[in-house]
Amino acid sequence: MEKVPPYVFAHVSKLIAEKKAQGVDVINLGIGSPDLPTPAHIVEVLKQAADDPTNHGYPSYVGMPSLREAVAAWYKRRFEVDLDPETEVVPLIGSKEGIAHLALAMVGPGDIALIPDPGYPTYHMGTVLADAESYPMPLLAENEFLPDLDAIPANVLERARVMWLNYPNNPTGAVAPISFFEKVVDFASRHNIIIAHDNPYADVTFDGYRAPSLLQVPGAKEVAVELNSLSKTYNMAGWRVGMAVGNPEVIAGLVRVKSNVDTGIFNPIQIAASAALQGDQRWIKERNAIYQRRRDVILDGLAAAGIKAHKPKAALYVWAETPEGWKSNDFAMHVLDHAGVWLTPGTAYGEAGEGYVRLSLCAPEERLREAMERLQAIDF
Ligand SMILES: Cc1ncc(COP(=O)(O)O)c(C=O)c1O
After folding, report:
1. 3-state class of 20 per DSSP?
2. CATH class for domain 57-278?
3. ipTM higher than the 0.90 cut
4. Residues 12, 333: contact at Cβ < 8 Å?
5. Please, which pLDDT band fits residue 1 given cuts at 50, 70 and 90?
6. 226 CB less than 6 Å from ligand 1?
7. I need a surface site. Which of 22, 36, 88, 159 has the fewest CB within 10 A?
8. Which atom of ligand 1 has the smallest separation from the CA of 92?
9. Position in ligand 1 atom list of the atom nearest CA 237
10. What is the pLDDT of residues 74-116, one digit of tens each?
11. Buried b (16+ CB within 10 A) or exposed e, 59-96
């Protein structure tokens, strides 16, 4: 247990609850949980499926064939990627579950996982749970928040089994051009490394940007899997449903671990997930326009407060620089104490997050405006 600390954000809820108990109207810009509802047509399918008693038993370990087919068809439509629904697709209880179990399937003692720093915490914690080591790849502003593959030492590469990547990126909001993915696939083939690309923000994009899948690169399936999720794309974070797709051996390894640990996803959720993937997608554009307006409120508000930020083309976050002389954690605590606004310290995502805070777009525009006004009113 010493090696496994509580989930990095577990203490934050307590901190915010304490402030609220003191009467502070806290504006929480820490969480990336979509606040907009799941579209009614998806909820309706869930309700009907939940009424059917044949859906009440244990689900299949490998997911319903109809969902695996819906995922394959969605990848074809959305990315022009061909997948075999039987061997190259497995539904997940959210991408987070897939990350942790994939780590168990791919690395063990003596192995190294290359992880983005800053990065979603589960890449590192999954590695720790598998008794392997993480090697952080710094994502720096001067490299457009892409890792410098040439900077990974040879002795690390010898033991590296997997490289975790995530574009559109949490927490930086950076996106990766397909040319970077091509470089990554070539690198992975040369060094015998599996790429695990986590792509849950592919359809939360702004300014007309369209995010690719890493599997679009010819030959990518030889060396890569991609994790995806309905949490952000379809405002379904609480439903816990996602998918891993790509290299069949890696998918088989993941299924092996999963089948020994979990027992799949409630069938009505799988049926509703299929409906989400196959149904009307036009509302996503309107939803993204809402996030884009929120992004702009934050960017304008931060600029007025004298805080520099990177303008994201995708994902649910603004990655902002702490003011001169401020450490991430101290600044986040200062803003909470004086403005009643919670921003996530960049260091929650790794050492290279020092000097940054992350602001989530998952709050209504009025609350974001108020948060920015409060920020502009305090000294730092
Ligand atoms: C990069 C990244 N991967 C995975 C997840 C988890 O997604 P899910 O809800 O599918 O477990 C998140 C959630 O914030 C995320 O930011």
Report:
1. helix
2. alpha beta
3. yes
4. no
5. confident
6. no
7. 22
8. 10
9. 9
10. 999 999 999 999 999 999 999 999 999 999 999 999 999 999 9
11. bbebbbebbbbbbbebbeebbebebebeebbbbbbbbb
